């Protein structure tokens, strides 16, 4: 066992950098969750549509994404898409694209379960009072489904936030990348990684607490 | 793109040239996954029992551990372990640092699912065990765990899939597993799409096999519920 002297000045000197990186990671997660939710919702409707030519490809999309490592997807999109003539994505955009596709697969499962759990009577009641198909979805099915799936959505947001750490692999300056850089520059291993861990933990915990408030707010039917 | 001629610069030729490194990468990925799943299952079950039945201080410690592990990204844990262990004079190769980090991470997940499974066993089972005079270890061994482990099977298989996917992160600390092998090959011949698709296909096959084995296990150990 060697002697180790903690020197927290490395952290205080770079505190702004840490916070910026944390905000970037959080932003990436939120944007990807939003895009992923749109993809997921469309995919979920395709899955329950009962049309084989719609649900088949969507099933393949979901299974492929869920069985492939995220890091591989990141590299494939970042390095592979230019081979298909798509040059205009910078690394942040390409990461958002990857994480959105990834989130879309997971969200589609969440939404599919949500759609399946809505009692049939709700839709029948909406029909009975003369709502059009899209009105039934907009005013009856979606609000109920949103409430049911809210806990899963928040779980997904937190795990997406943790997945943004993989953006470090393509040099996006989020928390893991910055921590690694400071670690390499200063060799303050313990301070740097403890700080990064605590920042991730605190943010995940804060997100969970906040989202639980939102869940409680929307759980009551007024 | 996919081209079936066998000349330098085509996928099949390059894959054949690199066959030994690809096999090695596949082996590293599979052995790291298997070791991680083994360690994580052993420690995870022990920790799950501690979470459910431990003394309050043991439960508290296990709870802190599990929440810490579940709150930080696995990549941070891998880097922390890799750079941190050497501070304590433990100079492990990157492979072992990675396996330790992945195991520590998966242990927390398995502990949490086992706790859930144990708590979903009706309390009457424990009481019935007490009533016929079984000691705590016997109740655990013959009554609670056989039921809890069956319920834990589906999430356990999911954790296995996560572990296989997680081994790709070992490439970041320089373990030459399947993904890094493919990256090295791509760096040599620029067949980006071919080799990443190939790697993806291999991961898909590994995971499909695990999922299939899991489904078989579930069928094998399922029993009629009363």
TrEMBL record, chain B:
It is found in: Cell inner membrane; Cell membrane. InterPro entries: AA_ABC_transptr_permease_3TM (IPR010065), ArtM/GltK/GlnP/TcyL/YhdX-like (IPR043429), MetI-like (IPR000515), MetI-like_sf (IPR035906). PANTHER family: BLR6398 PROTEIN, MEMBRANE COMPONENT OF AMINO ACID ABC TRANSPORTER. This is ABC transporter permease. It is a multi-pass membrane protein. GO terms for molecular function: transmembrane transporter activity. The chain crosses the membrane at residues 26-56, 68-88, 195-215. PROSITE patterns: ABC_TM1. Its main location: membrane. Keywords: Cell membrane, Membrane, Transmembrane, Transmembrane helix, Transport. NCBIfam families: HEQRo_perm_3TM. GO terms for cellular component: ATP-binding cassette (ABC) transporter complex. Belongs to the binding-protein-dependent transport system permease family. HisMQ subfamily. Pfam families: BPD_transp_1.
